[in-house]
Structure formats: C-alpha cells, structure tokens
Specification:
single chain, about 400 residues, alpha/beta, 16 helices, two-stranded parallel ribbon
C-alpha cells in the first residue's frame, strides 16, 4: 500500500512538472509577443536591447524545459504505472491478471480464440468421425464371439467385479487396459464391448469410444496440447488407441512427449475416462517398457491369441449365413485349406483375412452367376472360393 502511494505521488509530481512546462512556455511566448507588439514601430532598435535578449533567452529556456519536462513526465508515468498497475510476478496488468476479473465480452473473446486455436490443432469433425457407440448389449455380444475363450472369461470376470464394486472403491485405482495380440483377433470389437460394460455399471458417463491409432496423437510442437484435447474429447467414455506402439516410431521426441502427457493424464483424470491401448505383442511390450509409469497405471492386460484354421472356417461360414448364403457340400474343408495357405503368409490377419477372403468369394460368385457357372444364387461352391493369386505371392516375398 505504501509503495502504491509513493508511486502515485511521483506520478502526480510528473503531471505537475509537465503542466508547469506548458504554463512557462505559454507565458514566455505571451511576454515575447507583447513586447514585440509594443515595439513594433522600432523593432530593430528593440531587438538590440537587453529586455529583448532576456525575452528570447526565456523563450529558448522554456522550449528546452518543455521538451525535458515532457519526456520526464512520460518516463515517470510509465514507471509509476508499471509499479502500481502490473503484477511483478506475472508481468500482467492487475486488472487482467485473473480470468475472473475480465468482463463477459472479454472472457467470451478469449474462449473463442482458444477454441479456434484448438480447432487448428485437431478439429471437432475429425474427432466426431472417430467416435463410436459402445456395445448396447455387452453380455450378448461377448457371448456371440467365436473363440477368444480366455479373453471372454477375463472380460466376464471384470464385468462381475464392476457390478459388485461399490462407488467409493472405484476411485482407488484406474480401469485402464492393454489388449495385446496379432492382427484381426477382435481387439477393437472387445474394446467396444468393454465400453458397454463400463457404461452399464457406471464407470463411464457415456457409452462412447474414441478410436484412434498411435500416430494420431502426434502433433509436432503441439503434441502435448493435442493429447490433452483428445483426452478431453474422450472424457466420460473410452479412449481406444490401436497400434499404440506407433508412438515410438517416427519422430522420437514427439512420441516421448505424447507418452509422457498421456501417462500424466491417465493418473490425473483416471476417473474421467478409461484408456485401452492395443497392438502387437512384441511392439506393445517395448512401448510399456519405454515409460516406467505406463505399466503401473494399466490395471488389466488381456492377451489375444491367434485363431486356428478350424475356427476361422467356422467364422467364414458365419459370414455366409449372415449374408443369406449357404455353403455347398465340401466347401467348408476347402475353405479351411485355403485359410491354412493364407496363414503361412507374413501379412496374415486372422479374422480380417477371412473377411477379405469372403468378400473376394462374393465377387467371384457374382461373376460365376453372371456367366451361368454357379450352383445357385445363394449357394457358395468351391468354384467361388478364390485360389492363391499373384497378390499372395507378391507379399510373401
């Protein structure tokens, strides 16, 4: 308070000096002008007198004084305002040092600029496109899955624990998970089912799941802000990061910053969202080991095993029935042998490969049907099953 009074006095002193310079300048101009008018008849003689020289001297002094006083007053004004109006710690104007002190219009403008900035980092439409609904009937959906017996058992155990766990116990630890396994083994499907269970038993507020991959989190210099924005969008639901090991690929510093930010948010906002990381076994092992805090913050680890040929042939038959087709006699063993061939390829993707095989089967069936070389419109025969082609040979090299 004393400091404020001191600088206010100095500020007033600066105003007095400035005002006095104005008055002195105008007084000198007035005196010189009056004297010049009085001696207008004999101006040359007057200019040689001592009075004229005094008046001219006073005028020059007043101009110099005015110039000095003006700059002194400006300097005093700047220093006094800085000392009294600005916070020394933050350097901000005390009037605007707190968001709460701003007017409604000023707050709205700041919020608008902040939204525009975040939209430049990652826009809302992109986040919306990657957001999906969780399972509406998780029990029925988990039971309908082919294979994955160990995973299904683990998910059911987790669901039973969710059902009986009291609300006050939920804040003790997080529900973050890690799904590990080869491609096409149902990790994304199980993540959506898990979102359904989490919503049903009150662990998340919305039955939604934001599905992205590891590279999606990277944002150059704005990586940390992008991760925070993504987690904010996923709040109330599940954030599913497939191929999470991609965080360690490409730009090392971007990946490390994304992981560090994510690990912090996993703890700070553990009650706001559930994180599910997913990816291939060895790569995910490296990712979890890359940050000491990541392993301890993940509560559940689920291992997804590859499907065998028999089960995949049954899944192929399920696809056919779902689309209104039946398999001709001897087709299922033929499909099984075709799947065994695919399993030896380096890019084999379990159920994903079977789905692609079924799609190609429908294409070939349509051609055979058009050429009159089909057993029936809704019957899939051996002729409809595509053989090993150049694509398989190309990617097996």
């Amino acid at each position: 308070m004393l400091n404020y009074i001191k600088w206010k006095i100095i500020y007033i002193l600066g105003l007095v000096i400035s005002l006095s310079s104005y008055i002195f300048l105008f007084w000198c101009i007035y005196k010189t002008g009056i004297a010049a008018i009085e001696h207008s008849d004999n101006l040359k003689e007057y200019m040689s007198t001592a009075d004229c020289k005094i008046h001219i001297m006073l005028l020059l002094v007043s101009v110099v004084y005015y110039y000095i006083a003006k700059h002194m007053a400006t300097y005093i004004d700047t220093i006094s305002r800085h000392q009294t109006e600005y916070d020394k710690a933050t350097g901000l104007n005390k009037k605007y040092s707190s968001y709460d002190r701003l007017s409604r219009a000023e707050r709205n403008e700041i919020d608008r600029q902040k939204i525009m900035w975040l939209e430049q980092i990652i826009d809302t439409n992109t986040l919306r496109k990657h957001t999906h609904k969780g399972s509406k009937k998780p029990e029925a959906d988990i039971n309908s899955l082919r294979g994955l017996e160990d995973v299904k058992k683990e998910i059911k155990l987790m669901a039973a624990r969710m059902k009986t766990q009291k609300k006050k116990e939920r804040n003790i630890s997080s529900m973050h998970m890690c799904f590990v396994g080869p491609p096409g083994t149902g990790k994304t499907t199980c993540a959506r089912i898990m979102a359904g269970f989490l919503y049903k038993y009150g662990f998340i507020k919305e039955n939604k799941i934001l599905e992205i991959d590891g590279n999606f989190l990277k944002g150059g210099a704005d990586t940390a802000l992008k991760v925070e924005r993504i987690v904010q969008w996923a709040s109330g639901g599940v954030l599913f990061i497939d191929e999470a090991y991609a965080l360690m690929q490409g730009n090392f510093y971007e990946g490390q910053e994304a992981i560090a930010t994510l690990v912090k948010l996993m703890e700070d906002k553990k009650n706001d969202f559930v994180l599910i990381l997913a990816g291939y076994s060895e790569e995910m092992k490296m990712l979890v080991k890359s940050n000491t805090g990541l392993y301890s913050r993940i509560k559940h680890y689920l291992g997804f095993l590859p499907y065998d040929a028999e089960l995949l042939s049954c899944i192929f038959e399920d696809y056919a029935i779902k689309h209104g087709y039946t398999l001709d006699e001897g087709v299922k063993p033929y499909v099984k042998n075709r799947i065994i061939e695919c399993m030896n390829l380096p890019n084999f993707g379990n159920v994903r490969t079977v789905r692609n095989l079924f799609d190609k089967t429908l294409d070939l069936h349509a051609l055979n049907l058009m050429e009159g070389n089909s057993e029936g419109k809704h019957i899939l025969s051996k002729k409809d099953i595509p053989l090993r082609n150049w694509e398989d040979d190309f990617f097996s090299e």
